[in-house]
Design goal:
CATH topology of the largest domain: Creatine Amidinohydrolase
CATH class of the largest domain: Alpha Beta
Strand content: 15-25%
Strand order of the largest sheet: 4-3-2-1-5-6
Radius of gyration: 23 Å
Number of helices: 12
Largest sheet: 6 strands, mixed
Shape: globular
CATH architecture of the largest domain: Alpha-Beta Complex
Order of helices and strands: HEHEEHEHEHEHHHEEHEEHHEEEEEH
Number of domains: 2
Distance between the termini: 35 Å
Low-confidence stretches: none
Number of strands: 15
Helix content: 25-40%
Length: 398
Amino acid sequence: MNYPTIEAKEYAQRVEAIRLKMAENGVDLLVGFSNLLEIGIVRYYCGFAPVNESSAIVIPADGQVVVCSGQASYDYCLVQNKLPNSRIAILPEIGEVSGFEYDTEGQLDFEELFAQVKAEHSNVKKVGFIGRLIFPSIIMKKLQSVFAGAEIVDFDDVHYEQRIIKSSAEIECLKTNWAMVSEMFKNVVPKIEVGMTERHIEGMFEAEMMRLGAESSVQSFAPMVATGPKNSYISMCRNTLRKIQESEIINLAAGVSYEGYNGIICSPLVLGAIPQKIKDAVMCAYDALNYASAKMNAGTPCDIVLNAYTEYLTKYGYIAYCPYGSLHSTGMLECEAPTFTVGNKRVIQENMAICIDAYFKGMEWGSFRIEDCYLIGKDGAKRMTTYNDEAVPRIFKN
């Protein structure tokens, strides 16, 4: 398996690209924040993702970028930060959540850091921040205090627009993820047996992804094994000690992370005899996904794809069990903004990485999801996760 990386020059290019957007919007200073919910904001610009801590990055309109680490991850930051000509600061506000205080030489708090930045860039009139759902109030208050009188604006949308079109290096990393998660499902699913617990199967997925070279499970998408009529109803869940049985729905969802990029698959499974009504529903979802994804061409508004999906389910009588037809970007998050909706009619473009899923919920025997990752090329969408395309028809087709 190929193990590509993002080179230092690409991180520098990303910083210069966001600086152009800062200039277009009159933003003099940008502050991004990451935690385990959105680990990609800081990592996107420098390659650094901490362990058990948060991180931040301070990008002035010109001059030196500051990569911010907690105390425990500082040595790791020295190794992992790939942004040329940047400096690293140690900040206790993004340290371990336990509040443990290190006596670390040279550490600052954010008020002191912002004061240093202000001294170097005295004419800051507009400050952008990235991480609207997670940005800590303690850091925001210090930002407002030091840059009193400056306008502070949400820069999330600009940041995520930058991430939606993938570079050639990002595509290579994603291809590694997609190959890895496909191989993981291929190797793990045949070993699943009646009587195993959901947590046992979770462990099988995690062991296999590590063996294949993943750095972790997807941060926001750890393996989920939702089984039977009750547990499968839950879209996002923690696994239990419930033992799987014959002839019941098993909803498998797992993803891998490599070089900060993610690949995921959701796939239904039944062990033993499969009731016909489960076969019919799964094959309808699979066919609907294929019907809709065939329309994911560069230059196509996304409502055409989403409407094709719902029209297919309406035609075959399953629309009442479809809470939504999901179409979303993927990359440094499993589900990455901006969204694709019927209302916004966002246009699908070449070099987007997109997940599309068919989610059937609330049938008397349970719920399930089929989800795959696609790369948009000049000639349309290519399904990059290969497991479902082989396994679903083999298992569920009459």
